[in-house]
Amino acid sequence: MKNQEKRVTKLQLQLKKAGFFIFNLQFLLLNSLGIIPAIAADEEPVLSIVYSQDNSNQWSTITNRLQAAGVKYCVIPLADVRSATDLGDRKVLFLPNVETLTPAQTIALEEWMSKGGRLIASGPVGSLSAPGVRQLLRSIVGGFWGFSLSEKQELQPAKTKLPEDWVNQEGMFGKVHGGVILPDSVSTPAAVWKSTDNQPAVVTTDRSTLLGWRWGVDAVAGAELDNAWLKAAIARYMKLPPSASRKVEGGSPTCSTSTIAKSPTPASLPPVITTAIQPVVQPPITNTPKPQTKTPPKAIATAPQLRPLVNVTRQNSREPIDALEDTVRLDVVPNSNVPISSGDAIALQQELENLIGRVESSNLAAATNGTNEDIASNTEGLKVDRPNLIASRSGVQIPETAVAITQAREIAKNIPVLVAQKNYALARQQWLTAKASLWKQFPLNRRLAQPEIRSVWLDRGTIVRAGSEQGLAQIFDRLAQSGINTVFFETVNASYTIYPSQVAPQQNPLVRGWDPLASAVKLAHARNMELHAWVWAFAAGNQRHNEIINAKPDYPGPVLAANPDWANYDNRGNMIPIGQTKPFFDPANPQLRQYLLRLYEEIVTRYQVDGIQLDYIRYPFQDPAAGRTYGYGKAAREQFQQLTGVDPTKISPSDRDLWQKWTAFRTEQVDSFVAQVSQQLRQKRSNLIVSVAVFPLPEIERIHKLQQHWEVWARRGDIDLIVPMTYALDTPRFQRLAQPWIASTQLGATLLVPGIRLLSLPTVGAFDQLQLVRDLPVSGYALFAVDNLNNEFHKIFSNTQGKAQPTSAEPIPHRQPFQAAAVRYSALQREWKFILQNAQMRMPTTTIAEFNNQAQVLQTALSQLAASPSASKFITAKAALSQFQSQYRTWMRQEAIENPYQVKVWENRLAAIERLLRYGERRLQSRP
């Protein structure tokens, strides 16, 4: 061995003089002598690659191509990225086909690149992200995906002054199915499409390269072409280690814990090898100062001279919108044998059991949707097990439903066993199979919904596309058929009104020539629906809307353009914070507040709207821990300085007492405005419903990052409905977002209406979320938005919640709370009678008699209150409900052992009825 080492050392010195790279020589020579395996143990990954849900179904071909190219890499799960440090310390980052990024992730990427990081991206990067994210990504990657090509086209070099070794390597050109990239002013095309007027296919800057096709997809491009471009881009930003020309055995190593701030959760990563890796020997990313982001010209509104916050320790911060994602993720990737922790195994088991409960609950509601007499006559003598009993009445095939539920229960019991045996792939496969089978058992062809708030946001884009009252009528027909009873109609957007206003400077130019609000009120009322005016409160403009109406990107909207002193600013003097798209008003400005109040008064007095919804009733996203704050408008600074003697631009979060006062001051501006709106508008219209669209973040975090303290508004009685934007792509996450507020005791008598975003939701997945809402103690839901209400959703909603009779009108909870409570309780009683009459309720005979007697007492009290509301009848109904609730768990003790989910659902529905009574009491007391 010593002789071999001497030979190696001698050859190294000789070749070093000839200009060869020592590391390459070591690898080749030691390998030829049999001293090390084909890949050195201390060889480092060349780049980091981002894994996300967007590229998960392409992951196997992506990783196969990386290995075939000999590019060693480590994996960073996008879900774990909260700050620049989470993107690691490799110099090059690969972002393949990632279409969805959050503001925090995009800002982290921009900060990471400002410190020397270099980016390679492919496909329509960020195309499904928020407008502000897309705008920031354009500056990061030097352009954006303009449009897809209809078929494969020839890729050829661009006539540019780029280095020849960058674009003339073997295999870089051929036929590809991609899209046209629209470059910005600082990027240079590196390749173009031959048959589309030589439009750009690849653009590059000194710090990024964007490939205009989905990398790693067989149907898009060949492996040789993909790898040629990737290796050329890597070489452009750093020299490949010599061994990169060899295949990496065994896949990719995971990034070290020093590279990723948070370990990837088992279900969010593809399989990777576990070979330990040594500290990185890439050139370090220097801590160069972050370049100043270009801000819009200040010709329209003069920004105050502010400075970045000082004495702030930078942390791994999370934007509020990212905090909506729970740290426990139940993404289940098929055929993955990545380890599942015991905690995740229990979570998967519990979710499957909850899904079984929702399926049984929905089928029971469908089976009992009728009169008590109908149910009794149709089920007499039917003595079978409960799944078959319910299925027989709900229109679902009996054997299939019973088998699916039985099999799912067995799988749920078996998941912890499979995890203990480390059979992770089989556990995932069985879980997914059970979920798919259960989803098929929802009674999607039977009406099952009881009186509830079924609301939907009717967005500006859909209104504009309707084009006329006739077009709008078709939309309202579909909504009525779908059972929708409340429409949040976008009335003020980016400071433009949807109607011809005498207060606002301009009607939206996209709808001039008609009055959509007048049409909407008429159309909604003709269909027994409510129409609520949805207004933007403190968001003054919208860069996306500027694009649509061909306004300049920095145009702050017609109100700020005319009143520049009403503008708000961040701590760097920007009206629009980095990564966002909307300038905001200063809520402390008294002239601005009076303007908004006059505008809202105009809406509720000129039009017979049933309610008004305040959106953007907050400050923009901030993160004080990361040095990003907002609220430094002229009026706010002057008022705070009068109160404290200190200009808020001179303080930072490290000044704890002053900073707390500054946060409280801004929060109070929003709180007091909501109170003003409620009081002033209700003086004009006493029966007006006031609602707010809000973020479902933890209270303290929300106050510090948004200054939105809606618990205060609810307790004071300023609002009738809280509509939290509990948007999630699966039911477990939706429940984790909504549950804290559903269980909250801080909301007074205000009703909670969780929001469900239809975009990207599978049809049955949306129904699953609706069923969860119906099983929890809430009075309805809000769908975002009509733009996403496709034919499949329309069909399911029409079948399950559409009107039983075309001329019938059921009570809307926020309008007729006592009537809604009585009807909902009748439906609950039908379910109990259905189970009892078929000897399926596990309750002693003596208990059944007491249960039935008390249930009837409560029914009578609720019915009398609904028929003729009065204070005395309210007291009687409330007492009967309290008495029934106090004994409920005792009555259901045995039943809860066998059917815990259904027993809890019934208890939740009693709680929902109690909340309707509290809300009705408040309305009763507020009558003139």
Automatic annotation (TrEMBL):
Record-annotated Glycosyl hydrolase-like domain positions: 452-756
Region feature (Disordered): 243-269
Pfam family, one: GHL10
Polar residues bias (residue ranges): 253-266
Protein name per Swiss-Prot or TrEMBL: Glycosyl hydrolase-like 10 domain-containing protein
Record-linked InterPro entries: Class_I_gatase-like, Divisome_Glycosyl_Hydrolase, GH, GHL10
Ranges that cross the membrane: 21-40
Keywords: Membrane, Signal, Transmembrane, Transmembrane helix
